[in-house]
Amino acid sequence: MAALLAFAGSAFAGLITPEHGGSRNADEINDLYKVVLYVAIVVFVGVEGTLLYSVIRFRARKGRVAAQIRGNTGLELGWTIGAALIIVVLTAVTFALLPTIKNPPRSGPAGLQVSADGVRYAALDQPAPPGGKSLKIKINGQQFVWRFVYPNKAFAYQTMVVPVDTTVTLDIASQDVDHSWWIPKLGPKFDAIPGYTNHSWFKIPASAIPKGKTGVTFRGQCTELCGYGHANMVAFVRAVPVDRYEQWVARQKREIDQGNTDAVKQRSQFNPIPSQ
Amino acid sequence: MATTEYAVRELPRPQVLARDVDRPARARWLSWVATTDHKKIGILYMVTAFVFFMVGGTEALLMRIQLGAPDNTFLTPTAYNQLFTLHGTTMVFLFVVPMMAGFANYFVPLQIGARDMAFPRLNALSFWLFVFGGVVFYASLFWSPPQAGWTSYPPLSSSAYLPDGGIDAWIYLIHLTGLSSILGAINLYVTILNMRAPGMGWSRLPLFCWSILTFAILLILALPSVAAGVTLLLTDRHFGTHFFDPTQGGSALLWQHLFWFFGHPEVYIMILPGFGIISEVLPVFARKPIFGYRAIAAATIGIAFLSLLVWAHHMFATPLSSVVLAFFMLSSMIIAIPTGVKVFNWIATLWRGTIIMKTPLYFAVGFLAFFTLGGISGVMLAIFPIDWYVTDTYFVVAHFHYVLVAGAVNAIFAGLYYWYPKVTGRMMSDSLGKVSFWLTFVGFNATFLVQHSIGLEGMPRRVYEYPDIADLHVLNLISTIGSFILALGVVVTAYNLVRSLKTGVPAGPDPWKGNTLEWFVTSPPPENNFDAIPRVRSVEPMKDIRRQVERGADATAARRVGGPTPKVRA
Q1: Which of B429, B433, B564 lies closest to B490 in space, CA to CA?
Q2: A130-268 architecture in CATH?
Q3: Cα separation of B300 and B202, whole Å?
Q4: Of B43, B219, B265, B405, which shows the fewest CB atoms inside 10 Å?
Q5: What is the mean pLDDT of chain B?
Q6: Closest among B81, B166, B151 to B463, alpha carbons compared
């Protein structure tokens, strides 16, 4: 039974258990989900089995008389306490696994070496990663595209490029209506609500990149209704080795700066008022 | 009058007959429009709600057609957003709640031995406010229907993003149906508190009436919050206030708190009367007293109390501190205890009974089997790290349809088949009822079981299209096919409801050997219900009355009325 369930867990990721494999918090959510699912299956099978047995076994037949039972205090207390115990166990498991889901870990040796720059949270009071080393990316939701702003002020739309083995902490905000940031394989989702900053993190292991490939891409999309384009507000996170990331982010910065300079130049050409 | 004659011949003794009241004859339609009779109002509620159920179901089918294939172009994104807004709002505010109000209107006075509701005219006002709410809302079809979902979160629902009148129509719907529900709730509350038959103490109140009492209290406590919320939204939209406008110091999250402080109790407002119906149907068809009457009544109150303390579990993905997350996780999970107690008690009611396999029992067992699944997925959603993954996906859609379709709709169907003979005097076709049960059973699970997987594979709710990745196509196709089987099952019951009016077998006053006082009077009951109100000596007054008759305690009266006791259809 246990082996079957373990098999089910790996073979049906997505079908009966959450997607995972992109980040430790996603894996831990999957583990927590599986524990709860096993308990749920036991409860469900127990309830359905008893129900089905009762309906088949106790049908009206000739000569059968219904037992006029009005209750049984011992039994009723028993299943109340039983239900309470299940809740206690599930709560205990949740809080045992919570820290690894909520708290960002340290970036790995192959990760980007960045300096400490303040606290990040999955919940508001989540502690900073030990040593404080993380790459902080600001996510901005708008109708109907995601914008990602990097520490060097480079930005990108729709596809977020990140280095592997690096703790990436996210500041999630919105400039218009509610959105929600979610990449299933990278774990939890968090709402982007105008006027608030929400926090999350992920850390993609180097092993996530398949052999012979230069990177790995995870798909996700906005999960809070944001208008007619909601279904098309997709997001991709592309994880690449650190050196490739550094090249990419430097080029992105260079091109944006170049674009800005060009735009200023172009505007001045068409400006009817001569500059003084 | 035909029914009166029928009653003379067929009623079980000791029956006290109602006298006809002489009234100037009115046009038939006027007698419905101007009625203050709780039974006519109850029928109006139920029929109107059922019509809205069919409308809301049609909207769902249109959405399922769109989602039957990836990248489908059957509907535009705007039309799709309008449809799910109409569907959700209709099912919650125009179907389930008014349907439960209809059952309550018709059966609470009969079950407690009252001649009408405490405030008959207020009762009529409640019904007409509900109708006007529905009319105002659906009038938006001719202009621009709302498209921000049944939750209408600002800023999307603010005039900056959706300036057309759809959201305003939605706001008026909430105001009108909300007012209707509050007035109806006050009426039911006062009726149950003050108009019970002599001898009907709190420990003899039928469990359906317990659930309606709780339903009324929850409505009175929860509705003001959303009424305030939509009023603030209305002034934001039209009078320049900024309650929910973050660019002017307002808070978009404030809406979510106001809405869900109402919205979560609303779930229990929809399901508790269903619990009540199940608690009536099971003992009658198991020929056994309800197991643990006090525990079920106490669990009803417990669920209602807890339901007021769990609203933020709809907001786990918003910025909240860990303490808040933990609190709402625990309070939500604790609800599983009284709910579990009820499920166990219901199964124990069947245990060692002699179960009569009629349609109401089928739907009641369907309720037990699959509401349980909705309850279990509810516990999963209450665990906030899991919720962070599955919230706002099809997993949630599957969860609340298990609660509201497998739960509330199965209970409603059980109630319709159970009480139809009382309301019309005729039985519904049992074989058609079973066909309807199996179709809805198969259709429902095909539609919604796979939606758990659709959600786990990462498909968010409220999207008009999805790419052809993972198993999304095949799973969505199964769901779409299932939805049409489910719809067919509903149509069979709708047909059965209409057809049985003419062709149903005459039911007599007590076709099921019921336990409660509505089975004491003729079917349909006379306008004033009871001439003499029987004294209640236990939680199953009809059992006492039947026993009394069997003992021949009232033999003289029996001879006077004449005729045999009607055969019980078992």
Answers
A1: B433
A2: Sandwich (2.60)
A3: 14
A4: B43
A5: 92
A6: B81
Q: Within an 8 Å CB–CB cutoff, is residue B298 touching chain A?
A: no
Give CA–CA dist B406/B554, Å, rounded: 45
For chain A, the structural domain boundaries read: 2-57+73-102, 130-268
Domain assignment of residue B373, yes or no: no
Contact B366, B340 (CB under 8 A): no
Chain A nearest C-alpha distance from B513 (Å): 14
* Cα three-residue angle B356-B359-B365, rounded to 5 degrees: 75
CB B296 within 8 A of CB B364: no
Residue of A nearest to B146 (CA): A227
Which of A224, A226, A233, A236 is most worth mutating to test chain B (most B CB atoms within 10 A of its CB)?
Answer: A224
Say if B53 falls within a structural domain.
no
Q: What is the spatial order of strands in the sheet that A198-203 belongs to?
A: A155-157, A145-149, A135-142, A167-174, A198-203
Domain hosting B283: range is: 2-14+82-356+505-561
Q: What is the pLDDT of residue B29?
A: 85
CATH assignment at residue B144: 1.20.210.10
CB nearest B355 (choices: A14, A55, A124)? A55
Number of folded domains that form chain B: 1
| C-alpha distances in Å from residue B281, one per residue of B277, B355, B410, B497 | 6, 11, 12, 19
Q: Considering the domain boundaries, does residue B46 fall inside one?
A: no
Tell me, yes or no, whether B309 lies in a domain: yes
pLDDT digits (tens, 9 = 90+) for B498-556: 999 999 999 999 999 999 999 999 999 999 999 889 999 999 999 999 888 888 755 55
Tokens of B481: 């096919």
Please give the ipTM for the structure prediction.
Answer: 0.90
B499 in contact with chain A, both atoms CB, cutoff 8 A: no
Strand A155-157 with A145-149, pairing = antiparallel
Would you write out chain A's pLDDT as a tens digit for each of its 276 residues? 455 555 554 556 678 899 998 999 999 999 999 999 999 999 999 999 999 999 999 998 888 888 888 999 999 999 999 999 999 999 999 999 999 998 888 888 777 866 444 333 444 455 555 555 678 999 999 999 999 999 989 999 999 999 999 999 999 999 999 999 999 999 999 999 999 999 999 999 999 999 999 999 999 999 999 999 999 999 999 999 999 999 999 999 999 999 999 999 888 887 666 655
CA distance A262 to chain B (A): 32
Active site includes B430? no
Closest to B303 in 3D by CA, of B375, B362, B358: B375
- Whole-model pTM? 0.91
DSSP helix/strand/coil, B368: helix
Look up tokens 């520490």; give the residue: A151
A42 to A1, A228, A255, B349, B365: CA distances (angstroms): 12, 42, 58, 22, 20
Beta strand spans in B337-402 (E): none
Two structure tokens written together for B119: 């405030």
